[in-house]
Every structure is written in structure tokens, then in C-alpha cells.
Amino acid sequence: SADAAPPKRAPLAAAAAGEEGRVRGFIGTLAGTEFATSPLSNSRKGGLLGLAAATVALAPHTDPYLSVIVPPILHSFDDADSRVRYYACEALYNVAKLCHPAVTSHFAGVFDALCRLSADTDANVQNAAHLLDRLVKDIVTDSEDFEVDAFIPLLRERLQVANPFVRQLLVGWITVLDSAPDIDMLEFLPEFLDGLLNMLSDANREIRQQADAALSEFLAEVRTARGERPYGRMAEILVARADSPDEFTRLTVLTWMYEFVGLAREQLHPHLAPLLSQVLPALAAQEERIRNIALETNAALLELHSEGMPIREVVRSVQAQTRSPFEATKLAALEWCSSILTRERESVLAILDCDSDEVTSGAAEASTATQEQRADVRASSGTGTTGTSPVSAVTSSGARLGHSPGDDAEEGEPYHRPLARDILECLHDPSEAVAVSALHLLALVADDEGHFSWLVSALLAEFHARSELLTSRGATLIRQLSAVLGAEQVFVGFSARLTHASNVGGSGAPTHRGGGSEQAQAPAAHGGESSDEAFPLSFCSVMAQALNLILLTADETRDLRSVLKSACAVDMEGSAAAGTAGANGGEGDGPGHAHGRALLAALYPSWCYSPVATVSLCLLAEAYDHAAALVGAIADAECDVETLVQMDRLVQLLESPVFAFLRMRLMEPRKHPSLLRTLYGLLCLLPQSTAFRTLSARLASVPPATFLAIDADGGDGGEVEGQGSGGGGGRAGASGLDFRAMLATFRERCAERNTERLLHNS
Question: Which of 77, 252, 302, 708 is the most buried (most CB within 10 A)?
Fold first, then answer.
């Protein structure tokens, strides 16, 4: 009829006719409370199907209506009814397939929906979501309008989700975008690298494999990429993941670190300290592959140039690893300390100097005492202040290692456990390799005069505080130190420090001072405050015995023994001439004799803490007159059990190759009568024991009649040997050694030992 309403036209026809308002109203009805957002699930399903159908009908003129069509579909992904969620996936699939801007312009909402739907509890919804996901990926990779910068934050905030389905979806997106020719995902690698590394420890094998494949592909791209890359940011991520309990994650992280070292080189300097804090512990990993890659990485890091390296941070990092319970880590940390010290000595010493207060007590005073010994040796050997004898290399300047901690520290730097303390602790390590490595590092520190005195004081303090170190490893440490620094410097340094340690303010052993020798003044530690660290006589005695045994038996002290043998030796073919020369002032003495006497004078004071050690030292130096006088002094002081034990050991040493020359001297008893007196004196002091029988058998090779003839010929025979006469006499004119004063020092030490023993027993 004429009053009937005109028939409604299809949306496409209406749109074509320019009736946009009617079309928008129609779509609004589908998206409104009557359908898409209706309380009735069937109405919601119908609304979603209607929106998809409208999109198909409007194509290709759908773009103006997407702002009305897409939001209700996205809203339906949260619906409680799984069928509604399924229809929402179907609707969005149809919309996106016909209108790509539906995805690109609403990508944040679409991606969020995909992440949620991939973990949906309904299998049909999951399958529908996977189909939608593949379509969206195709649209994005083909689109020129896709903004990767906007996508990366969405990806990053979801990478820590533990759901396996979500993780698979994320890895898939990373892989797809990386394969797109127009997208450079390496630029954004730091944003999602941590998330991929985190997936390597996932319980799902498939996820681990996918994450590993993605990481392997990115690492291959990093190797071939040109231009600068954000290695620093990625290094920080690797360090954070390197201590993962998952071995596969640690292996992957270390592999990346190794590649980065080769690619970035010195660009990694700012991150070197944290890198080392993870690489060094990995050297002790149980997994062999981890240990191997850690070894390669550590070797590569060691090859980096030190220029521009943050020395203080690196030193602190490796210092912490010296406290590791694992041998491999400690050895590597000590190697790093040695490497940095060799290349950047001043910087490392500055760190040592400013924080080692607690390990340097007494260093300055010992330095002064040691320099006095140096001046004595120079004067006695005739080298003056420019002498090159190893004895003259003994340190004389004060060690700044006694500086107050933090005096030179950078502003704001926290107080750290002293580096020197940690290195010294390594000397006590159960592993001898660690202890030796630590000692070599300390020897590098002591390569200059200012720190050698500190090292001697520190080692003595360690031996005193923890006697088991001296007992179990003292000989090894001192021998190794002698091999690195030279036996003469080491023994003279220990002797000077021991002499000072229990003789502060007291009388020391007399030494000869040549005219014109300079006495340099050593600055004291602690800003000028003296530090008198005294050791008990019992410790000094044990230390003297240990040094004496090393001197007589170690290969490292072979040259030192040769020098000492020249101290008072008389040429067997011309002893009378030598004696005459000595009486005339020593004109016949060469530089070798002067060097030997200077060394004997330097060692003698500390050897006096052990009477038998002093006798053996004089026998080695062929000071037989004085040795005989010492035996008499020992008898006067009454022998205790310790002295008898030391005599027993001396007899054993007399039968060793070291004293072969002495046994040969017994073939000429008239030239060396005091040697016979010394040995017979020891025999008289020894109880009836194996040592007594050994020495008695040796002396039996000398005819008693010969000895009686010597006694009848001239008292102590001192003139024959050219050592002077009287009081254990001393050839003072020829050698510059005042044996009378030396004997007085020896008697004083014996009296002190007796007093200490009596006090201890009471």
C-alpha cells in the first residue's frame, strides 16, 4: 500500500548510496547490548556472526567502520562461554582476512587476545586461536605500516609468563619477525634476550628447543652483523643469567660471552668485572662443557688490552673469587691478579697500599732494619751505594701497604676486605698449587724495594699466627720465593726482620760499616708511626731452624751456599800465605771472599736464635775457630732437649753431600784443627745415640795421635787457619768480621732462650 514503509536496503547498497549513518547504526546494533554484548550467550554469538557478515558485505569499504566492528569482538575473547570465545576467533579471522588494517590498527588488543587465547582451557578455542595467529603473522610481515617499536614492549612484558602455550606463541613471533627482510630484530635483541634465556630452563622440552634454536639463529646473525651492536646491554643480561641453576642456560650464556669477547673486544671493558664474576666460578663447574667454554672465555678475556680497563673494579671482582672454595677458580683469580699487576702495576699497588692496613704491622721498622743490613753488606763487600750484589737489593723504603684503609680510596667507594689479606689467605689453601700461585703473586708485588719488606713481615706474621703453615708448607713457600726473587735477597730479608722482631731497642749483632756508606731513611708505615711487632724467641728459633735447613738442602740456595763457603775459606794449597795476607789487612782477599763475609754477617744475628743452626752456618762458611767457640758456649748454657735434637739433625746433615767439602777438610787435620775441636765438642755433648755413633765413626778416620800432635803444637791452631786467635777469635783484621762481638751476641741469645724456657716451665 502507499502507506507501507520502504524496504530496507543491504548495508553495501546503503553504503554505496552514501547512507553511512544507516550502516553505522546497523553495525552499532550488532555490536550493542542486543547482540554482541547481550546477557544471552546465543545473542552474543549471533552478534559476532553478524559483525563478520557485515564486514564481508561492506568489503572493500570496511575501514571506516573498524572502530565499531573490532572492539566488541576483542571484548568477547574474555567471555565466560567458550563457544562465544570460539565465535569471536572466527569473527576476527574473517574480519582480518578481508581488512588487514583491522589487525595493524588494533594490534595491541589483537596480540593481547592471542596471548590469552593460546592458553585457553578449551581445545577448540586454542585451535581457532592458532589459525588466527598464523593469519595475523602473515598480515604483519607483509605490512609496511607495522610498528616494531610499539610491538617490542608488548613482547617484553609477556616474556616472563610461565605458561608453555604463551611461550610457544612468543618464540614463534620472535622467529617470524626475525625472518622478515624489512625488520631488523637484532636492534631490539636486548629487549627480549633475557626472556629467551629464561625459556632455556623451561620444563617443556619443545619450548627449550625452540628458544635454543632462536638464540642460535640470533648468535649467528650477531657474528655476521656489521656495525655497532649494544654489546654492553646484552653483556649485563648474560651476567644476570650466568648463575642460573640450569646447566644448559649457563652453557648458552657462556657461549654468548665467549663470542662477545671476540666481537666486542675492548667495548666490554666497562662490563669486565661482572663478566669475570661469572666466568671464573664456571671454571669449577661439574659439567665438562661448561668448564671448557669457561676456560676459553677466560683466556680470551685475559688477552684484552688493559688500556681503559676499570682496574679497581676488575681487581675487586677477581679478589672475591680468591675466596672461592674451588681450586680452579682460585687459580684463575690469582692469575688475573698477576696479569693485571704485570700490566698495570701502579694501579694495583695503589689498591694494595690503601686497604692493607691489617696485614702490615711492623713493616716500616723492618724496612729500616733491613736497610741497615744492606748498608753493612755494601760497606763490607766494598761496593758502596752503587753495588750490584743481590744482598744490596734488600728493600729499604717503607711499604705503603700499611696505609690506613680508604685514605686513597675513591670517594664513595665502600670499604673492602684488604686484597693482601685475601692473597695471604691463599697460602693456607689445601691446594699447594693455589698456595704457590699466591706466593708468585706476592713475589710480583715485592718486586720493588718498598713492598719486599712488607712481604717478609707479612709472611713471618702468617708463620707465627698459624704455625701449621710453617710446618707443612713453609719450606716450599720460601724455596719458591727464593726461586723468583733470589735466595740471597730473601734470606737476608728474613734475617733482618727476625733480628729486629725480638730485638727492638736492644743490642743487635755487630756488623762492619765501611766508610762513606749511605744509610737511607725508610718512611714508616701508618703515616710515620712506628710499628714494633715482636715475635717470641721460641718462634724466632723455629724460624731460624727452618731457614737453616732450607739453606743447607734446597736447590734454590745452591748459589747462596757457594757464596757462604767463600766467607772464611782458606786455600788448601796456600793457607800460610793466606794467613799472612790476613794479618796484613786482607790484601789477598778477592771480591768473592768479601761477598761471602758480608752475607755471613747479614745472616748470623737471626741464626743465633738457634744455637745449632749457628754452628752449622759457621761450618758452612768454614769459620771453624768460631764454630768451636760456639760449641763451648752451648755447653756453658746447658743443653736442653731441643738443642740435642738439633745436634742430631746436624750430624745427619754432616753426612750429606752439602758438607762433602767439610769431610774432605778432615784429611788435613793440621790445617783445620778447630774443625776437629768443633766436631769432638759436638760428640761430647751428644748422648749415646745413633747420631753419636755416626759422628764417632766419622772422627775415627782421623788418627788420635794426629790430634794430640796438633794440641801440642799450638793451642787452638788459630794462626794456622788464619782466623786470628783468642776468644773464639776472629780474623777481624782480614775479614772485617768481629767474631768476639758475634760470640757475645750468641751467648746473649743463649741466655735469653734459657730465661724463656725457665719462665715457660714455671
Answer: 252
* Nearest to 212, CA basis, from 239, 162, 175, 160: 175
Q: How does pLDDT run across 418-443, given as a tens digit for each residue?
A: 888 999 999 999 999 999 999 999 99
Q: Are 210 and 171 in contact (CB under 8 A)?
A: yes
Between CA 102 and CA 96 the distance in angstroms is 6
Cis status of the peptide bond prior to 60, with omega within 30 of 0: yes
Classified as helix, coil or strand, 461 is helix
CA end-to-end distance (rounded Å), the chain: 139
Which amino acid is present at 49? L
Alpha-carbon dihedral sign for residues 352, 353, 357, 363? positive
Per-residue pLDDT reduced to its tens digit, 81-113? 999 999 999 989 988 888 887 788 888 999 999
The pLDDT value given to residue 746: 83
CA distance 119 to 204: 15
Query: Number of C-alpha atoms within 13 angstroms, CB side, residue 524?
Result: 10
Identify which of 388, 595, 559 has the alpha carbon closest to the alpha carbon of residue 483.
Answer: 559
Q: Which three cell numbers stand for residue 241?
A: 643469567
Sole residue written with cell 710515620: 528
Q: What is the pLDDT of residue 218?
A: 95
For 153-210, give the DSSP string. Answer: HHHHHHTT---HHHHHHHHHHHHHHHH-TT--GGGGHHHHHHHHHHHTT-S-HHHHHH
> Taking the model in full, what pTM does it have?
0.76
In whole angstroms, give the CA distance from residue 491 to residue 94. Answer: 92
Which residue carries 733482618 as its cell? 496
Question: Per the structure block, which three cell numbers stand in for 339?
Answer: 696479569
Give the integer Cα–Cα distance in Å for 458 and 422. 12
Report pLDDT for 515.
30
